[in-house]
Phosphate transport system permease protein PstA
Amino acid sequence: MNKWFKSGKPYIWLTAGAVSVSLIAVLGLLALIAWRGLSFFWPAAIHEVEVQANDGSTRVIIGEVYDREEVPISRLEESGVTLEGFEGDMLERKLFKVGNREFVPLDFMWVMQPQIIRDETPQDLAVLERSKDGNFYGYVVDVLENGESVANSENLRKVLFERIERAVEFNEKASDLQQGPIGAINYELNQLRLEARALDLEGQLTEAEQQRLAAEEQALNEQYKELEKELFAYREAASRDSVVMRDMRGMDVTIPMYRVLDATFPNDMGLLSKVGHFFVQIGKFVSEDPREANTEGGVFPAIFGTVFMVLLMSVIVTPFGVIAAVYLHEYAGKNAITRLIRIAVINLAGVPSIVYGVFGLGFFVYMVGGTLDQIFYPEALPSPTFGTPGVMWSAITLAILTLPVVIVSTEEGLSRIPSTLREGSLALGATKAETLWRIILPMASPAIMTGLILAVARAAGEVAPLMLVGVVKSAPMLPVDGNFPYFHLDRKFMHLGFHIYDVGFQSPNVEAARPLVYATSFLLVTVIVGLNLTAIGVRNHLREKYRSLEH
């Protein structure tokens, strides 16, 4: 046994076991997040439940079973709930999502299992996904066009789907018109206003310039009026139809079709239909904008903001980190000052991220951004352009936060390159700069990419500093659009990490937000893994490309 321990094999097995347990724990956590998040998109059965109250009265509830749990009878009695004739210590209760927010005080309600006297899943029950007030559950009674019925019992579903598709198409055209040509005209009108103010501040707002600006403004206003007519025509066409639904109160409710995004009959779906609906819902989640205080809809602006900010941060941190590492390793003297700088760089990696956020807000936003506004954008004052949190300041703040990682990783890569390569290159007549550019940096590129991978992994998940320097709950516009200069680095942006925080802790509807927290968390992990796999692929390519330099 002594000999076996001295051989080191027990430590190898212990290390392998620890790595295996860690890997299983990580994979188990990811599997749990994926299950809780992705199951939200699976079409759940819609129940029609008859519930009996303590006073003997009954009512009907229509909705999907959102959650269920076992609760102690004693806890229910302490909260004032009385259940006559029930024996036992534990009681099952179900959480129903009933939607129809405009007609019920809460779109979630708990129901005790003994109170349920009838539980059915009729095939005709429908779920309407709406742009406002969440889902609507009930029976489809009729489809109306300008108040007149256009469907019967035989073609009701067909007409419903056709009219929903038509309304969605007109809504999309109206949205594209608003975000495209109308948005471009509004942007140009604002630029004209800023140009006039700039000329006025410089004392160059002559009568000729005023006439030119007025003519351009008039031309833009005429274009706007034409586009506005087209926009109103789309909206009028979308509001022509409506659907009549019978809710759980037994009342017929008329819902304008322009507010309906989709209709499904989950109880009448087969397995293939459910799988198709599952992937369609996931596609909507990653491609649409959020709705209802981020508790519904998609997260595309947050995905775009996260990826754009991380890429911008990578472009900033990589050259500065590499230059700093090259100076420290190749040019700086081996003295106390250099050692002190290295210690400071290493210690910077342990500074809390919120401190970087405070520094970014005070230095970059207020000092640098405010100075830029006074020098380059005085016509926009007192409204700040760069003197307010934005995506550029967020990227620079996270670049400083991750700079120590890139410096340390690059310097480690430089230290692994044999000095004989440097000496051989110099002996053959190359200058130190040529040796560095053609030999050292290519060989150290895998280490540089390793540092970038670590920087991306940390930056993509940071939230605390971003709350101070650019991230917001809801951004009306993306940092990139079709208006010059196309990249608007002064704009605020959405971020997946902050979206998780906002939905999980600031949402007015906690029950509706819970599965979205898991779904967005899984999506954030997927985005980080995707960015890292891309960087790893580039690193492996560079390693193979410059492997010949080692020989």
Summary: The chain has a mean pLDDT of 88. The first strand starts at residue 46 and ends at 52. The CA atoms of residues 179 and 274 lie 33 Å apart.
